[in-house]
Write a structure and sequence with these properties.
Its EC number is 6.1.1.6. The protein has about 500 residues and is α+β, with helices and mostly antiparallel strands. The protein is about 35% helix and about 25% strand. The strands form 4 sheets. An 8-stranded mixed β-sheet has the order 6-10-11-18-17-16-15-14, with helices on both faces.
Length: about 500
């Protein structure tokens, strides 16, 4: 991309720049305006005045209002009157400008404005003969000159990549886009409200980590000059939040950015938002109940109902979520029964029989069970389902199941083939944790670039004693996608990562 601001302009851009230069010459530079005192936004005007009839509004001539926004429609009504629509975040409202009220000079000044310009107007409320609520303008001021024209009203931004690159334009011209991000904010505020009411504390933990840990993912790395050492952008907040539980906090959570050096797709962005929650003296079943509560209340907050349509599937988040052991799910779909104890060789033979490739670092029964789940079960799940009982080998931070030490008290929440949450009864045995980290180191040596590092400080933290704890991580972006029926993760990220223009 050319960083030189001196570039060729389209005919429309040249016209707008000429208009701006003329304004400057006349001492009316709009970019010098710093303040406009609004009494209302568009929605407030409609709420306050739309119920009045045309005749009733004539009795309110002494009630002057002020509103500001971007010009979105502009039409002349003869030579001496103009109708326009101005848009703010809350909506749009019609304004009516007359030469005999503004004066000839100010009226010509107004007539020379362009679509996209940001103006402030003061006036009184009226209704047209067609009953449309309208601001009858007494005074108008140009607050910002738009030097680029907006996309055509009907065509919009045809190139989906341009919508993401120029999100600021997308937000101007597409109210549906603005609505997605308003709903995203509601989701986050709703989750915070739920957890705050339960007495849990929101905390902040480091983004730069010296050790890879808390998830199975490939990190971004950077050199920290002051310490002359390599650091990683965090792939999870888990290990620091559990240190908070060791320190005596009994319920903590963090909503923040996570970074994973992975591909870009409709489901993945290397920089995304998650929430992790840890609650002392609770277990996996409690966390299942908590996550159901979060999903239901978020759906109600943004859509007014627990019913959701996503990708053509109708779901009701108000119903209890299915709870399905991973081994039972595999057995039901494939007929293969991993409840039967078997050797790695036997499990590998079953994988080969089913056409599953097993890498060197995956040569364990637990890894093969997980490969079966990913290959044959994951995309078959439609209704919200807690898949629990993950093998020990793929769950280095989860507590071993008391009845079968091959599996852990861990679950993932799947909806329509996508993972939305990952949760455990947290491993709090420092001796076991040390051994699990050792296995992760072996996996890394065998070629797994997503394996955790040995985190001795975390092991030592556990040696001071962490109470039984339930924890969960929920992908905020995917939750917003679900509740807004958004096809791509880019649709719910204001500024997603994109490939550079060619």
């Amino acid at each position: 991309m050319n960083d030189n601001y001196e570039r060729s302009f389209t005919e429309q851009e040249q016209i707008r720049r000429s208009k701006y230069e003329k304004l400057v010459e006349e001492g009316r530079d709009p970019f010098r305006e710093t303040y406009f005192d609004r009494t209302h936004n568009a929605a407030q005007l409609i709420e306050q005045f739309d119920s009045f009839s045309k005749e009733e509004l004539t009795t309110k001539q002494d009630q002057e209002i002020s509103i500001a926004g971007r010009i979105r429609l502009f039409r002349e009504a003869g030579k001496k009157a103009i109708f326009a629509n101005i848009q703010d975040l809350s909506g749009s409202v019609q304004i009516y400008v007359r030469q005999d009220e503004l004066g000839e000079e100010e009226f010509e000044y107004f007539r020379d404005l362009d679509l996209g310009d940001i103006i402030g107007v003061s006036g009184i409320m009226m209704k047209t003969d067609h009953g449309e609520l309208t601001v009858r303008v007494k005074k108008a001021v140009l607050l910002t000159k738009a030097l680029k024209p907006l996309p055509d009203k009907h065509a919009g931004i045809a190139d989906i990549e341009e919508r993401y690159r120029r999100r600021y334009v997308d937000l101007i011209v597409n109210p549906e886009t603005r609505d997605v991000f308003i709903k995203r904010a509601k989701v986050i505020r709703t989750i915070q409200s739920i957890l705050d009411e339960k007495g849990y504390m929101e905390v902040e933990t480091p983004i730069l980590h010296q050790i890879r840990g808390g998830a199975s993912a490939k990190p971004f790395s950077t050199h920290y000059n002051a310490l002359d050492s390599e650091f990683y952008l965090r792939i999870a907040t888990e290990l620091h939040l559990k240190r908070c539980i060791v320190g005596g906090f009994e319920g903590v959570y963090e909503i923040g950015r996570i970074f994973r050096n992975e591909g870009i797709s409709t489901r993945h962005n290397p920089e995304f938002t998650s929430i992790e929650i840890y609650v002392a003296y609770k277990n996996m079943e409690f966390i299942m109940d908590l996550s159901e509560e979060i999903f239901r209340q978020c759906a109600t907050a943004v859509n007014g109902t627990t019913k959701v349509n996503y990708g053509g599937h109708d779901l009701d988040l108000g119903k209890p979520f299915k709870r399905w052991h991973m081994v039972d799910a595999i057995k039901e779909i494939t007929g293969v029964d991993f409840w039967e104890k078997m050797s790695v060789e036997q499990a590998a033979a079953l994988a080969k029989e089913k056409g599953i490739k097993v890498e060197k670092h995956q040569m364990s029964v637990g890894h093969i069970i997980n490969l079966f789940f990913e290959e044959f079960v994951e995309d078959k799940i439609v209704e919200p389902t807690f898949v629990y009982g993950h093998p020990v080998e793929i769950s280095p931070l989860a507590k071993i199941n008391a009845e079968d030490n091959r599996f852990t008290d861990r679950f993932e929440l799947f909806i329509i083939g996508r993972e939305y949450a990952n949760a455990f009864s947290e491993l709090n045995n420092p001796i076991d944790q040390f051994e699990r980290f050792l296995e992760q180191v072996k996996e890394a040596d065998a070629g797994n670039d997503e394996a955790n590092d040995m985190d001795i400080d975390f092991v030592e933290a556990l040696e001071y004693g962490m109470p039984p704890t339930g924890g969960i991580g929920i992908g905020i972006d995917r939750l917003v996608m679900l509740l807004t029926n958004s096809e791509s993760i880019k649709d719910v990220l204001l500024f997603p990562q994109l490939k550079q223009r060619g």
